[in-house]
Specification:
Blueprint: H1 2-10, H2 19-32, H3 41-54, H4 60-69, H5 73-81, H6 92-108, E1 116-121, H7 127-140, H8 142-148, E2 149-155, H9 158-166, E3 168-169, H10 179-185, E4 186-188, E5 193-195, H11 197-200, E6 203-207, E7 219-224, H12 233-246, E8 247-255, E9 260-261, E10 268-272, E11 277-280, H13 286-293, H14 295-300, E12 307-308
Parallel strand pairs: 1-2, 1-7, 2-6, 7-8
Antiparallel strand pairs: 3-5, 4-5, 8-11, 9-12, 10-11
The structure holds S-adenosylmethionine (SAM).
S-adenosylmethionine is lined by residues 82-86, 90, 122-124, 128, 155-157, 160, 208-211, 225-227, 230, 256.
Length: 314
């Protein structure tokens, strides 16, 4: 029986068409308030199977029963599905580019006292937002940074947000930070390396679901790195349209190393394809929004997605 179940559920050729899996997602959405509708099925199934194998469960149906009887299992599943891997200055070259080319452009586009707003969407344990704040403090000076910079760090994972808010990291976590910056922005305590408390207070940490919550507003730099890869093309489109609303006219979107916006003409103009930095497209008309949101029009344009994800990650 177990082997039969294994054959019927764990060998999957057509992930979109697995009714047992869809029923499980439906249960999670309606009974547990965990909505994975917009996530890529192939990635999602891999993560679920990883979790199921670790507790010796072979079918989605049995796993659903297990989730019903073991409330703590949901947390373990969330940990497996929402991959929180991150680090300071992840993809160092791209961050160098941000420091030398993008941050100076943002500062130059503003009056001396004008606020600068930054959003790390899918911030995991916070390394990304602290990395950007360090670069802004380096460019503006700490005093001016404290006066002008407001940051938002959001994630759907409550535990990750909690960790990010602490701003405390282990010796292993801080390995990617250049020593001179480590010395300037962190205090070494018994608990670990604690980020500059005053600067940390410029960050608002919020639980936020990119797929359904309203976006932040008037953002100058939006980092959404290594998050869109988990979503299907329709969900990516709707998230990117929200990002367009969130961004100010002279502003930038910073994606992960393996992500890129394909339909750049309508919505985002590439500034550096190498480093996945885009500027907000300035002349977006109402009909452009409608064609981006409408998946049939997107398909008619010959594309399946406005974000390009390498085959091996699909
Ligand atoms: C691989 S981490 C990326 C962390 C960081 N941006 C980086 O590139 O190092 C992906 C993050 O996206 C978050 N995430 C997944 N789905 C999300 C959603 N619907 N809304 C907001 N965040 C989400 C996960 O919880 C996780 O923290």
């Amino acid at each position: 029986m177990a082997l039969q179940e294994k054959t019927s559920t764990l060998v999957i050729n057509s992930p979109e068409a697995n009714p047992e899996f869809e029923a499980l997602l439906d249960y999670l959405k309606h009974s547990q308030n965990c909505d994975y509708t917009g996530y890529r099925r192939s990635t999602l199934m891999r993560r679920f199977q990883h979790r199921m194998q670790s507790i010796n469960i072979n079918s989605y149906q049995s796993y659903r029963q297990y989730l019903q009887s073991e409330p703590r299992e949901l947390l373990a599943l969330l940990n497996d599905v929402l991959i929180n891997v991150t680090c300071f200055f992840r993809d160092r070259d791209a961050w160098n580019y941000l420091a030398t080319d993008i941050i100076p452009k943002i500062i130059a586009s503003k009056q001396p006292d004008e606020p600068i707003r930054v959003w790390s969407a899918g911030c995991a344990s916070g390394e990304e937002i602290y990395s950007s704040l360090i670069l802004l403090a380096e460019a503006l000076g700490i005093e001016s940074c404290l006066k002008r910079v407001r940051c938002f760090a959001t994630d759907v994972d409550q535990a990750a947000i909690w960790q990010a808010r602490q701003g405390t990291y282990s010796a292993r976590d801080i390995m990617g930070i250049p020593p001179v910056l480590l010395e300037k922005y962190f205090q070494h305590t018994e608990e670990g390396y604690v980020f500059h408390p005053q600067l940390r207070r410029t960050i608002i940490f919020v639980h936020h679901d990119l797929a359904k919550d309203a976006p932040m507003s008037k953002i100058d730099l939006l980092m959404c790195r290594n998050v869109l890869i988990y979503f299907n093309p329709e969900a990516q489109t709707s998230i990117l349209v929200r990002f367009h609303f969130a961004l100010k006219n002279t502003s930038f979107l910073f994606l992960g190393k393996t992500e890129s916006v394909i339909s750049r003409r309508e919505i985002f103009t590439p500034v550096s394809l190498k480093h996945r930095v885009y500027a907000k497209g300035l002349n977006l008309e109402l009909q452009d929004y409608s064609s981006l949101i409408n998946p049939h029009k997107l398909k008619a344009s010959g594309r399946t997605s406005i974000v390009d994800v390498p085959k091996k990650l699909r």
